[in-house]
């Protein structure tokens, strides 16, 4: 069942932020503007900017501020600038021609230096939602995006957690992810009646904390 489609990442994020059980799992996310980018870099040191509409890692850029100045990474290339104004001019040349969101950067757990995140896919079957898959997505060497279409490697959720965070309790972390998914389904259905499938992208940071990066209504 395909069901209703929702392209805007911002609309879906705002829906999840409206529920107190979920809001704490969402990195700070704001519509793109130069002033917001500057302030969020000052607060977090690094952020991810991504098109409000789009998937597969398309147009996603990591922006950072460090001792060298300002910079960004797009695909496998990193550029460094002495000041914020020069960096934003450089961003204009690589950003796709769409509206963007800025999201607080999360320090993903890694396997052999490669970041990993997780996709949980659920589908509505009659009146019930079924879990179809819980998988890890390990970034291709040299990339920060984990998408399989960008060369990422698929692992089982259990294997990804075990290899990236060997000291955490696997069953408890998987259960937390499943329970969070069930709450998010309830919130999404309340805001967007008619949806039939959902794909949740979860980060687990180096301390084991779960974050919701985004939700898709047409998960690949």
From TrEMBL:
Pfam families: ATPgrasp_YheCD. This is YheC/YheD family protein. InterPro entries: YheC/D.
């Amino acid at each position: 069942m395909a069901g209703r489609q929702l392209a805007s990442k911002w609309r879906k994020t705002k829906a999840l932020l409206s529920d107190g059980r979920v809001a704490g799992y969402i990195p700070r996310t704001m519509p793109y503007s130069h002033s917001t980018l500057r302030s969020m870099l000052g607060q977090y040191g690094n952020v991810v900017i991504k098109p409000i509409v789009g998937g597969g890692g398309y147009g996603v850029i990591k922006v950072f501020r460090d001792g060298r100045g300002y910079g960004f990474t797009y695909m496998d290339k990193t550029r460094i600038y002495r000041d914020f104004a020069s960096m934003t001019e450089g961003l204009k040349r690589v950003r796709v021609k769409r509206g963007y969101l800025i999201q607080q950067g999360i320090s993903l757990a890694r396997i052999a230096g490669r970041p990993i995140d997780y996709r949980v896919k659920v589908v509505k079957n009659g009146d019930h939602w079924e879990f179809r898959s819980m998988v890890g997505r390990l970034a291709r060497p040299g990339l920060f995006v984990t998408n399989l279409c960008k060369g990422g490697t698929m692992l089982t959720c259990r294997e990804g957690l075990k290899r990236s965070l060997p000291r955490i309790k696997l069953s408890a972390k998987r259960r937390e992810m499943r329970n969070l998914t069930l709450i998010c389904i309830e919130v999404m259905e309340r805001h967007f009646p008619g949806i039939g499938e959902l794909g949740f992208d979860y980060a687990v940071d180096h301390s084991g904390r779960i974050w919701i990066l985004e939700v898709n209504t047409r998960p690949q």
